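Predict fold of Acyl-CoA dehydrogenase; 146 aa.
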Amino acid sequence: MNPERILVAGECIGIARNALARAAHYANERVIFGRPIGQNQGVQHPLAKAWARVESANLMVMHAAALYDAGEPCGVEANAAKLLAADAAVEATEAAQITFGGFGYAKEYHVERLVREALLFRIVPVTPQMLLSFIAEKALGLPKSY
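Predicted 3D structure, encoded as C-alpha cells:
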C-alpha cells in the first residue's frame, strides 16, 4: 500500500503543478482594464499560497519515496504524503479554476479536468480520515480508532 500512496501523491503533485502553470500563464496573458490580471494580489496570493503548499507536500512525497527505496519503514510518511499532496492539489486546482473565472469550466482550458482529478485523489485509494487515523496511531501513539 505504501508505494500506491506515494505514487498517488506524486500524481497529485503533477496535477497541481499543471494547474498552477496553466493559471499563471493565463493570468499573465489575460488583460483587463489595461493590465494583466496576474498583477492583482487577489489573483497572485491564492496561486502563490497553493504553490507553497504543493512544494511542501512534494518534499514529503520525496521523503516517503526515498525511505521506500531504501527499504526503510515508510507507512506514516506515505500516508502523510498522500494526505498533503491531495489537499495541495485540490487547493491548487481550485485557485487555478478561480483564476480562469468562467473559462475554468471550459474543456479547452483543461482546468475543469484537473479539478475533477484532484478531487478524486482526495478520497481514492484511501480517504483523508483513514490517513489521519493511521498517522495518529503510528506517529503519535494514539489508540487505534478504526
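The longest helix spans residues 41-69.
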